[in-house]
Design brief:
The complex is a heterodimer of chains A (about 400) and B (about 350). With about 400 residues, chain A is α+β, with helices and mostly antiparallel strands. Helix content of chain A is about 45%, strand content about 15%. In chain A, strand 6 and strand 7 form a beta hairpin. The longest helix of chain A has 29 residues. Helices cover about 50% and strands about 10% of the residues of chain B. Chain B is built from 11 helices and 9 strands. Classes of the chains: A alpha+beta (about 400), B alpha+beta (about 350). Bound molecules: flavin-adenine dinucleotide. Chain A: It comes from Neoroseomonas soli.
């Protein structure tokens, strides 16, 4: 936990873009823990918290939150620059579910009491959140979820199982989708509950992923008592909020950061492998570069809409599709030029910047999580293009 | 169909059947999982069994102690090994057997063919190459499963000739790196003063032996693709979401159909190249056929294996579920004996208009 008192008070939106970029870069270089640069795997809370606390102290943890809630209220163009600098330097991703999802959820739908209680604890790092949506039989069909919450006086009793819960072993709070009305249509009996992971009856079991890393988990709920005041919004209306939140998730997953990160490493790898000057490589590199540039432009238009206070439509799925597939194409190219290094478990030559296999594997689930790309294409064709079916 | 072809399909069938003993298709992956990240990363007992079954000398002439079969049998076997994810370094051992047989060596060839000695050829001096410069003091890199070597073979240039030296693995300077699939590769810094001379010139055979290894590796990839795709089809037929079997979604049906096309292309490229080599193709014709097959296997192989993960959703990204093991193995072999880019360029450089 940190004292978040000495916050950035200056309105960074007033700076010129290049001055802002220099300002961010300088601060990152001066403050980012050197041993955490370019981590080959997603870091656990124990490992990334020094960086989380640095950002928190500076007041830069939540660049997109409005200033009255402790955010930076940063304009879209500036947010993109901010992200680019973070990625350029190889800063680790933090345990950011609180920042990216719970914050926006509570800012939009929380009671003042919930906002006052939870938001500062995200900003201080006291609460680390995980996302309890998916279940073994409710993945793409999330609305089929069966984990149930039954009201008992002023508590809900929760029973069921979640799966693929990222970094649940690190989290002390979970935002959970539960079924509160079994008789209603499947989308109409779902509620949002905020659950303290220390509550008796919760068991977390790590799952080893394709990178041999314990990044996601199964979470079991056995008669877990959750105070009714931890329900967000209206009972049985959780699905609508979740959907709105998914558009936050999609714009986050559509942000160019992962592709931008991989792209700079592609160049480093090409130089190391001696193909940088190769005309055919330059052709491929140029195509990827332009895809990345255009993704940044498209992303900017969505962030701008948010900035104007508009709610994002289903067309945000375009961003998620293009970003995640670009990330994969960049890492596919890495594997292609890496020679036999394409089979190594660890980064090449002990250099974390040369990690083609790690990035290749990490790029795979990007088209699965956050609503698979097949589901995103269904959304685009039905809800944006209005095709029948 | 000619008598020769009938014999061929019979010997291919027998090879495939015999593979079941070591790398059972549809068998469980317990053995494979238990060996991951162990030293040496494979089972020397199983390697010996491969020798007893005649696999290591499959393409070595009967006179030299081999089975006297050809590349059509070798790629069929490699495919079975891939489908069963066997970690034993069979293709590198076949390469060594080829060189030793050409050198008319007796001392190392017999124990290698029996599977009693793991003999690996340390020919490579940089990533993504098929060239064998034979630089005497260059470290030899990416030796597959080097942790389990009993001896290394080293091609060393002497004027216009490529001599073959043998080095006992005991006491050799080998730096190991782990691979994605739980195996390892080694960098050998050989002390040639400790090495024994096997042959004065293997220059004539080394290129061909590497082409054969590249083609067998394409067969290995084909086995990975077939098996991972079979698992994926089974999943598409059973997994339900939205109250339906996901295999009823037309977008997934089309994807599966596309993957089938890639698998068919790969099989056609691999099997036709093997037939060309068995018919005695040499020089540019052989190289073009091999490059066609290895290029296709590297490109379509990774594509199919990636999509198999995608079609499984979250469970495809776990270590516990087998489909991911196929992708990891695919990453390890995709660029072995030449990447897609290398083989595409070699193919084009051979003036394909002029080859059959
Ligand atoms: C690395 C990772 C981290 C994750 N983190 C979290 C987390 O923190 N919290 C959480 O709640 N969840 C998390 N998830 C779960 C993720 O949201 C689900 O994996 C995803 O929704 C897909 O569900 P599923 O895995 O059950 O696949 P399924 O829904 O079974 O899908 C299998 C395949 O069928 C396709 N498919 C399904 N329906 C259709 C359709 N109608 N049309 C066409 N194709 C279809 C899918 O696209 C996929 O290819 C994570 C997943 C991964 C891989």
């Amino acid at each position: 936990m940190v004292n978040i008192a000495p916050r950035e008070t200056q309105d960074l939106n007033l700076m010129e873009d290049e001055a802002f970029r220099a300002h961010v870069r300088q601060w990152i270089e001066a403050n980012y823990p050197a041993d955490l640069r370019n981590p080959p795997k997603r870091l656990h809370w124990d490992e990334n918290k020094p960086w989380y606390f640095k950002l928190a102290e500076k007041g830069w943890l939540c660049p997109g939150w409005p200033r009255q809630f402790g955010g930076l209220g940063l304009a879209p163009a500036k947010q993109i620059i901010f992200t680019e600098e973070i990625e350029r330097y190889g800063c680790a991703r933090t345990n950011d579910h609180g920042i990216v999802m719970v914050g926006p959820l509570l800012i939009n739908h929380g009671t003042p009491a919930q906002q006052e209680y939870f938001l500062p604890k995200i900003l201080s790092g006291e609460h680390i959140w995980c996302q309890g949506y998916s279940e073994p039989n409710a993945g793409s069909d999330l609305a089929a979820l069966r984990t149930e919450a039954v009201l008992d006086g002023d508590h809900y009793i929760v029973n069921g199982q979640k799966i693929w819960t990222t970094l649940a072993t690190d989290a002390n709070w979970c935002f959970l989708l539960v079924r509160t009305d079994k008789n209603a249509k499947k989308q109409e009996g779902i509620s949002f509950l905020l659950v303290d992971m220390a509550t008796p009856g919760i068991t977390v079991k790590p799952i080893i992923n394709l990178e041999y890393h314990d990044e996601f988990c199964e979470v079991f709920f056995d008669n877990v008592r959750v105070p009714a005041k931890n329900l967000v919004g209206t009972p049985n209306r959780g699905w609508d909020m979740a959907k709105a939140l998914l558009s936050f998730e999609r714009i986050y997953l559509g942000s160019p950061r992962l592709s931008a990160y991989a792209f700079t490493r592609l160049r480093q790898l090409a130089e190391r492998m001696g193909v940088w000057d190769d005309a055919a490589f330059q052709e491929t590199y140029g195509k990827l570069r332009l895809d990345l540039e255009d993704l940044k432009s498209l992303y900017g238009t969505f962030v701008e809409k948010l900035r104007r206070g508009e709610t994002l439509g289903p067309d945000v799925s375009m961003l998620k599709i293009f970003q995640t597939e670009l990330f994969q194409r960049i890492t596919d190219t890495m594997l292609e030029i890496a020679g036999e290094n394409a089979g190594l478990l660890e980064p090449m030559e002990g250099n974390r910047n040369l990690n083609p296999t790690g990035l290749y594997i990490q790029a795979r689930p990007a088209t699965i999580y956050g609503g698979s790309n097949e589901i995103q294409r269904n959304i685009l064709s039905k809800n944006v293009l209005g095709l029948p079916g | 169909m000619s008598q020769a072809l009938d014999d061929r399909s019979e010997s291919i069938r027998m090879i495939r059947d015999s593979a079941g003993a070591v790398a059972p298709r549809g068998g469980d992956t317990k053995r494979v999982r238990a060996l991951r990240f162990t030293n040496p990363g494979f089972d020397k007992g199983v390697f010996a069994q491969m020798g007893e079954l005649g696999w290591i000398g499959l393409a070595v002439s009967e006179d030299a102690g081999g089975a006297g079969l050809g590349m059509s049998e070798a790629v069929a076997l490699a495919e079975e090994i891939g489908a069963g994810l066997a970690p034993e370094p069979l293709i590198p051992a076949m390469l060594s057997a080829r060189l030793l047989a050409a050198a008319e060596d007796k001392a190392l060839l017999a124990p290698l063919l029996e599977g009693g000695k793991v003999v690996l050829t340390a020919w490579q001096e940089k990533a993504d190459t098929l060239a064998v410069p034979g630089t005497s003091d260059a470290p030899r890199v990416f030796v597959p499963m080097a942790a389990g070597a009993d001896a290394f073979l080293l091609p060393v240039r002497e004027g216009n000739r490529i001599a073959l030296l043998a080095l006992d693995a005991a006491g050799a300077d080998v730096a190991l790196e782990k691979t994605m699939d739980g195996g390892n590769v080694g960098t050998l810094r050989a002390d040639l003063s400790r090495a024994a001379r096997v042959a004065d010139d293997i220059g004539a055979v080394v290129e061909q032996a590497l082409d054969e290894a590249a083609l067998a590796t394409a067969g290995h990839m084909l086995g990975l693709m077939e098996k991972a795709f079979e698992m994926t089809l089974a999943y598409l037929r059973t997994r339900q979401q939205f109250g339906r079997i996901i295999g009823t979604f037309q977008s997934l049906q089309h994807r599966a159909a596309d993957l089938k096309v890639h698998i068919a292309l790969t099989r056609a490229a691999v099997e036709s190249a093997a037939a060309a080599l068995d018919a005695g193709a040499t020089g540019a014709v052989r190289q073009a056929a091999v490059s066609k097959a290895k290029h296709r296997a590297a490109e379509s192989g990774l594509l199919v294996l990636r999509q198999c993960i995608q079609l499984h959703g979250g469970i495809g990204y776990t270590d516990e579920y087998d489909v991911g093991m196929y992708l990891r193995r695919g990453m390890v072999i995709a660029n072995q004996y030449g990447s897609a880019t290398l083989h595409r360029r070699r193919f084009m450089a051979l003036a394909p208009e002029d080859v059959e």
